[in-house]
Design goal:
Elements: E1 7-9, H1 10-17, E2 31-34, E3 37-39, E4 53-56, E5 59-60, E6 70-71, E7 74-75, E8 80-81, E9 84-85, E10 90-92, E11 95-96, E12 101-102, E13 106-107, E14 112-114, E15 117-118, E16 123-124, E17 130-131, E18 136-137, E19 141-142, E20 147-148, E21 152-153, E22 158-159, E23 163-164, E24 169-179, E25 184-185, E26 189-190, E27 196-202, E28 207-209, E29 212-213, E30 218-228, E31 233-235, E32 238-239, E33 245-251, E34 256-257, E35 261-262, E36 267-277, E37 282-283, E38 287-288, E39 294-300, E40 305-306, E41 310-311, E42 316-326, E43 331-332, E44 336-337, E45 343-351, E46 354-355, E47 359-360, E48 365-377, E49 380-381, E50 385-386, E51 392-400, E52 403-409, E53 414-416, E54 419-422, E55 425-430, E56 436-437, E57 441-442, E58 447-452, E59 462-463, E60 468-472, H2 478-486, H3 492-505, H4 508-524, H5 528-541, H6 547-567, H7 583-591, H8 608-636
Parallel strand pairs: 1-3, 2-4, 3-5, 4-7, 6-10, 7-11, 8-12, 9-13, 10-14, 11-15, 12-16, 13-17, 14-18, 15-19, 16-20, 17-21, 18-22, 19-23, 20-24, 21-24, 22-25, 23-26, 24-27, 25-28, 26-29, 27-30, 28-31, 29-32, 30-33, 31-34, 32-35, 33-36, 34-37, 35-38, 36-39, 37-40, 38-41, 39-42, 40-43, 41-44, ...
Protein name: Membrane-associated oxidoreductase
Transmembrane segments: 550-567, 579-599, 611-631
Keywords: Membrane, Transmembrane, Transmembrane helix
């Protein structure tokens, strides 16, 4: 019945619903009014009402009371009410409140709606606006485009279909917007298309089936928690994307998402602390924060496990002087990518993380000038670590005790800070011709299969003691390698390591050059006497690594001795028994310590010749031993 502005007593409506008028055969019983002004209080508390109640576009003087009632369908579409009291009510066939204006709270705690509860487009001017703890809705709870000037509270509710808040607004600054702690939603939670919340949005311990979407939503609780999703369980994807913004912390500690967590085109702002606080999460189908993800404040994902990949390509993180991205104990079955224009003002930190695919930072810029820019400690990477193609770090890059199955790459890289690679194991270490390392580099106790580098791209302050590698991608020229070793404090191991690699490559001469350079570096730190002796060894026989030089000295002494003894023959020890004197053979007899030609024992030099002969014997021992050692090394490598 259409009664525009006509007053209708609430008591009359109640009596009709409770059977004051007998049912007319052939007609459906119920109360149908449109545009009426309902005077008095419509009180159906604890009543049994089997007939539909349809009061569209009506205006109520007092809030209807359905507390504990059992009713058929209730429709109040477009009405204005001081509130609605329907706690513990059982409403069969649905409760339609779309377009209603409530000047007081809507109380549905413990109610059961056997159908759909529709608050689409409604406006509630109260705090709390909707109080529906323990609500059960068999089908959908629809709040699309609703405006709630206060808290929307559905803690512990059970929704058989979807909970839809698309385009809705809820909450007041400094208060709570949505309290859905422990809610169970079988058909999905939808807060899209400009949904706005003021105050904390709480879905702690909620269980959501078929996905949870906040695409395009805006959550505001500056200085506090914008979204509390601790232990949230989503059987599907969790979408915080496509323009999603949060002023305040997004808390997802120990949340479980069986699908993808998407942060693409999201903007998070927790500038005084954590923008995203999501430790102990389990994500079943990857974390995607690309493109255009931004976060002011720390992104904290410690102990999170991800099946699939983690992608922050192009993201912009800001936490100056602190940690921008924390991934301690992260587990990823795919790859971790922070490349393609990724920037972070603050440290990117991975400790005891395991990434089964590759770890990519190509094209990234990380700034933390007063500390570490990129920290990878005790990580295990099933692929390579790519810090190539324009990677820039303002601050130290520290990789310690890491296990990298493929290449650790720093080609086309700029590091304005120390490069620490201590205790690292990698298949290949690559330093390219455009690599710029502006501070010190520490390679101590690191082991790689192949060293693929350009020696002059290493910094002057280079620490290499304990650094081992199986082969060189570009072994020669050896002088470049010697300059590479010369920039560090003397340690014997780097020289021995390089010489061993040259031998494996078959470059024996280069290996000897390295070992000779080692002796010269050692000599520089010795006392005066040892340095003089070292210079003598170097000049004469190259510390034994120049056997040809020893042979030349032996030949020269042979010529000199032949001339000396040819000009003045030493007297025979037994003149009647001595063989004919031969100056050449006599000198050769003195120089060669083992082979005898019958000359040395037959003649005895006197005076200065005796001292000359003794010098030849000593020189012969030294030179012959040097030649023999060189031949032995050569034969041992055949």
């Amino acid at each position: 019945m259409d009664l525009p502005g006509a007053p209708v007593r609430a008591e009359t409506i109640a009596r009709l619903l409770l059977g004051a008028q007998e049912r007319v055969p052939g007609r459906t019983p119920g109360v149908h009014l449109s545009g009426a002004r309902i005077t008095g209080r419509l009180d159906l508390s604890h009543a049994e009402v089997q007939h539909p109640l349809i009061l569209n576009g009506c205006e109520f003087e007092e809030a209807p009371v359905l507390t504990g009632a059992r009713t058929g369908p209730v429709e109040l579409t477009g009405s204005r009410l001081p509130g609605l009291r329907a706690a513990d009510a059982v409403v069969g066939g649905g409760l339609r409140l779309e377009g209603c204006v409530f000047d007081g709270p809507v109380l549905l705690g413990g109610a059961h709606v056997a159908g759909t509860l529709d608050l689409g487009g409604a406006a509630i001017h109260a705090d709390p606006g909707l109080s529906a703890d323990g609500l059960v809705v068999d089908r959908d709870l629809l709040c699309a485009n609703a405006v709630v000037h206060g808290e929307l509270r559905v803690a512990g509710a059970r929704i058989g279909g979807t909970l839809t808040l698309d385009g809705a607004r809820a909450g007041l600054p400094g208060g709570r917007a949505l309290t859905a702690e422990g809610i169970v939603v079988d058909g999905g939670l939808l807060c899209r298309d400009g949904f706005r919340s003021y105050g904390e949005l709480n879905v702690q311990d909620a269980r959501v089936g078929r996905g949870c979407a906040f695409s395009g939503a805006r959550l505001s609780n500056p200085g506090g928690v914008a979204m509390n999703g601790e232990r949230l369980t989503v059987e599907g994807a969790l979408l915080l994307n496509d323009g999603f913004t949060a002023e305040g912390e997004v808390l997802l500690r120990a949340a479980h998402v069986s699908g993808q967590l998407s942060l693409a085109q999201a903007s998070l702002a927790g500038p005084t602390g954590r923008a995203l606080n999501a430790p102990l999460m389990e994500i079943g189908s990857g974390l995607r924060a690309t493109p255009a993800f931004t976060a002011a404040g720390e992104v904290f994902l410690d102990s999170t496990q991800v099946r699939g990949s983690v992608n922050f390509d192009g993201g912009r993180l800001s936490s100056p002087g602190a940690t921008a991205l924390s991934l301690r104990r992260l587990g990823v079955t795919g790859r971790l990518s922070c490349g393609e224009g990724f920037t972070a003002d603050g440290e990117v930190l991975l400790v005891t993380a395991k990434v089964e695919g590759s770890m990519e930072f190509h094209g990234a810029t990380i700034r933390n000038p007063a500390g570490r820019a990129l920290t990878l400690w005790e990580v295990v990477v099933g692929g390579g670590v790519d810090c190539c193609e324009g990677f820039t770090a303002e601050g130290a890059v520290s990789i310690r005790n890491a296990r990298i199955a493929a290449t650790l790459c720093f080609a086309e890289t700029t590091v304005d800070g120390d490069l620490h690679l201590r205790g690292v194991e990698a298949a290949t270490l690559r330093i390219g011709p455009e690599t710029v390392l502006l501070r010190a580099a520490d390679l101590r106790h690191t082991r790689v299969g192949v060293l693929d580098d350009v020696p002059d791209r290493w910094p002057a302050d280079l620490r290499m003691n304990g650094f081992t590698y199986d082969s060189l991608e570009t072994p020669l020229p050896v002088q470049d390698r010697l300059g590479w070793l010369g920039g560090q404090a003397y340690q014997p191991q780097p020289y021995e390591q390089l010489a061993a690699v040259y031998r494996r490559h078959g470059h024996d001469e280069a290996a000897r050059d390295v070992l000779l350079a080692k002796q010269r570096r050692l000599r520089a730190g010795q006392r005066l006497g040892a340095r003089v002796w070292g210079h003598l060894q170097d000049w004469t026989v190259g510390y034994g690594y120049r056997p040809l030089r020893a042979a030349l000295w032996l030949a020269a002494l042979l010529v000199v001795g032949t001339l000396v003894f040819g000009l003045q023959q030493p007297p025979a020890l037994k003149p009647g028994e001595a063989p004919a004197f031969n100056a050449f053979l006599y000198t050769l007899d003195l120089l060669l310590p083992i082979i005898g030609f019958g000359q040395e024992g037959a003649f005895g030099p006197r005076g200065w010749q005796q001292w000359f002969a003794a010098a030849l014997i000593a020189a012969g021992w030294i030179l012959a031993t040097t030649i023999l050692a060189g031949l032995t090394r050569a034969l041992s490598r055949q």
